[in-house]
Structures are given as structure tokens and as C-alpha cells.
């Protein structure tokens, strides 16, 4: 009888443990759970120790969707930013994951707004970070903004250009990065008075 009670108690403990773990797993803050995207994003664990701040304009839902489907590409991009001395990095192309994640470091004069076209990409996200100086970033939603296409999609260059009526502009400074997904019409690196030259890194992350 005593042995049966012990076995029964052990069985109950196992059931409770399994049930509890299952409930915990279902409620974990992950990008794959739509209800927990905001908490997943807010914790910043997805940055893997990167101390830069994601800009408020980033589409959290779209980023979470892509991260969930292929976290490896995003982890490599953030790790590259975290582990390199960006201030002293030479301009050039840096292959992080062949065909999937590539960084381009540039140190060039900024252009006036009229010289830069609104654009989107289908196959790659743009992660843009101004390392030195300041520049304006134009952002408009491909689902909510008023826009018309001015150049049809070029599959070779992975770009389409637009005329946008109601885009928003934000000043990009060291410490904060932007991510432009295929849902974001963007107009990057526009001249800010007093900052004729900027150093910038662009990381192209493939869309899963």
C-alpha cells in the first residue's frame, strides 16, 4: 500500500511538472507569439548584448515575424555591430553571411533631400546606423501612406522608387539605429545642417 501511494504521488508530481512546463512554454515572450511581440521587443534580448537603441519607427510586428522565421541572420547582424569598432572601421563591403547578410561602411558627403529618392526593397531589409555625424531618415508606410510609384521594381537592384506625400522625417544620430523592412518606404541619409559628411553602416539582411 505504501509503495502504491509513493508511485501515485510521483505520478501526480510528473503530471504537474509537465503541465506547468507546457503552460510556461506557451506563455514565453517570443516573437512567434503575436500576443507577446511587444514584450519580446521591449526586453531587447534579441539584440544579443548590442547597446545601441532601436528607433521608434521600426515596425515591431514585421521585425518579429522575420526574426521568428530566421533568427540566425538577425543575430549575425547585431553581433557584427556589437563586436566591431565601428568608429575606426575602414569603409568597404563586409560579407557576414554570404548572400544573406552584408555590411557596407561608408564615409561620404550627405545629399540634399531632393537628391535622394524614396525607395523600398523586396528581398532585403536595410539596417542603417549613423556612426559619426547626423542625417535625416525619411520613413513612410507602404500600407498607410499616400504614394505613387515613379520607377517600377528593378529585380536586379532590388529597388522600387516612389513619390510620397506624407512621409515622416527623423534625425539619425550615433546610438540609435533604423530598420527599414519591405513594408517601409524610406529616404535615407539626408543632409542635416552642420553635418556635411557622415560615417554610416548599412547592413542588408535577407527577407526569409
UniProtKB/TrEMBL annotation:
InterPro entries: NanQ/TabA/YiaL, NanQ/TabA/YiaL_sf. One of its GO terms (cellular component) is cytosol. It comes from the Bacteria. Pfam families: DUF386. PANTHER family: EVOLVED BETA-GALACTOSIDASE SUBUNIT BETA, PROTEIN YIAL. This is YhcH/YjgK/YiaL family protein. It comes from Pricia antarctica.
Amino acid at each position: 500500500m505504501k509503495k502504491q501511494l509513493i508511485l501515485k504521488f510521483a505520478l501526480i508530481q510528473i503530471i504537474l511538472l509537465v503541465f506547468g512546463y507546457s503552460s510556461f512554454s506557451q506563455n514565453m515572450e517570443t516573437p512567434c507569439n503575436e500576443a507577446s511581440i511587444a514584450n519580446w521587443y521591449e526586453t531587447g534580448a534579441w539584440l544579443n548584448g548590442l547597446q545601441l537603441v532601436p528607433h521608434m519607427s521600426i515596425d515591431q510586428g514585421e521585425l518579429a515575424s522575420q526574426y521568428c522565421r530566421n533568427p540566425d541572420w538577425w543575430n549575425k547582424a547585431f553581433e557584427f555591430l556589437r563586436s566591431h569598432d565601428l568608429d575606426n572601421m575602414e569603409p568597404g563591403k563586409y560579407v557576414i553571411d554570404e548572400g544573406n547578410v552584408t555590411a557596407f561602411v561608408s564615409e561620404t558627403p550627405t545629399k540634399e533631400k531632393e537628391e535622394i529618392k524614396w525607395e523600398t526593397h523586396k528581398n532585403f531589409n536595410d539596417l542603417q546606423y549613423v556612426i559619426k555625424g547626423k542625417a535625416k531618415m525619411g520613413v513612410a508606410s507602404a500600407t498607410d501612406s499616400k504614394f505613387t510609384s515613379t520607377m517600377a521594381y528593378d529585380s536586379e537592384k532590388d529597388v522600387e522608387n516612389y513619390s510620397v506625400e506624407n512621409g515622416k522625417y527623423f534625425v539619425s544620430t550615433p546610438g540609435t539605429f533604423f530598420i527599414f523592412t519591405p513594408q517601409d518606404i524610406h529616404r535615407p541619409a539626408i543632409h542635416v545642417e552642420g553635418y556635411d559628411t557622415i560615417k554610416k553602416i548599412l547592413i542588408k539582411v535577407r527577407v526569409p
